[in-house]
Write a structure and sequence with these properties.
Strand order of the largest sheet of chain B: 9-1-2-12-11-10
Structural class of chain B: mainly beta
Order of helices and strands of chain A: HEEEHEEHEEEEHEEHHH
Number of helices of chain B: 2
Shape of chain A: globular
Largest sheet of chain B: 6 strands, mixed
Order of helices and strands of chain B: HEEEEEEHEEEEEE
Oligomer: heterodimer
Strand content of chain A: 25-35%
Number of helices of chain A: 7
Number of strands of chain A: 11
Mean pLDDT of chain B: 81
Radius of gyration of chain A: 18 Å
Largest sheet of chain A: 6 strands, mixed
Low-confidence stretches of chain B: 154-160, 162-169
Structural class of chain A: alpha+beta
Distance between the termini of chain A: 21 Å
Strand order of the largest sheet of chain A: 8-1-2-11-10-9
Largest interface: A-B, 23 and 23 residues
Amino acid sequence: MALRSHRPTAAAIESTVRFLIAGCGPYVLAFPAGWVRGILTPEEAGLGKDVRWAGTSYPLTDLASRLLLSSAMESGDRRIVLYGNGTCLRAFAVDRVFELIDTHRMNLRPLPVQFRSAERTRLSGILLYENTVALIVNPLWLLEMNGRVDAFESSLMMRGTDTPICDAVEERSQVEMAADPIK
Amino acid sequence: MLRSQQRPSFSAQQRQAALGKHRGLLVFSLGGRHVAARTEDIAGVRAWPEAMPVPSDTPFVTSLVRLDTDCVPVYDLAAKLNRRVNPVGALCLIIKHEDGPMAVCIDPSVPSLHMVDSSTIQERASDESDIAGMCSVGDEQLSIIHLARLGKGASPEASGISQPCVRTNSCRRS
């Protein structure tokens, strides 16, 4: 009897999301952690255009300039983050890695609509982090993957711990099917 | 008895009519320049919290401030007026923007409320302008900023108060 109202897929949506929090210039950035492949020191990463690590090549992308910063700061805390999904890989420098956090979805917010230019492509939303705000970087923009991520997909993306769009969309369709089993 | 009950309601109507002739304006300072805004466009004033920069291409919207459990974008009105507000001791004007609440960093001097005769306000008709009109407060001629529509003008030139966009947030703390 009670099974008719049971929706396991909806209930399975995790209440926390994992982010890597890092600083780049004046920005506090939150990277969806599901696609973080590693964090290296600049010495470990080497000086080439690509970072080779564990038999995989990660093309280096200049995150600072893509975030409209004139130049990246040099500091002893500088780290190279290896990032990617199954098909697309990138390495980028951050000034400092703060921590890896599991945060409740209640702390996630969409980017306010008053931001209406290219920043909507760069950022998926914002995260209330300690007593400040971290900017959630759009992983597809970060990986320079072609194709636009619309707001709905971005919001869905933040729902999954491992963040892939396809998983999120699949999750959405499962939730829809659970809600309407006739489909 | 009835005659005395009618009298107060008549005077209330008169008072209502008199109030209708006046408009509430809040006068505040941006880098030393006084401007006015309609009180109905303002949600509150509080101490300026630290602003978090955003890599934004939207003119004059380049940071966020955390207000308790909420987070609102900052409109850099001072930069638009080619002024600079010292963030030390600055105040945060929370405005009722059409797209949702926004914050504006203003000078530390506490804003003053004025009831201005509506007939003395020279209103502007253009929807594209950030200026709702001009008014006289004391011996000063002030621009009335249309806070609810900040940044919604078609072009910087259309705003009537703007200069070319500068990307620096005049209120950002280093």
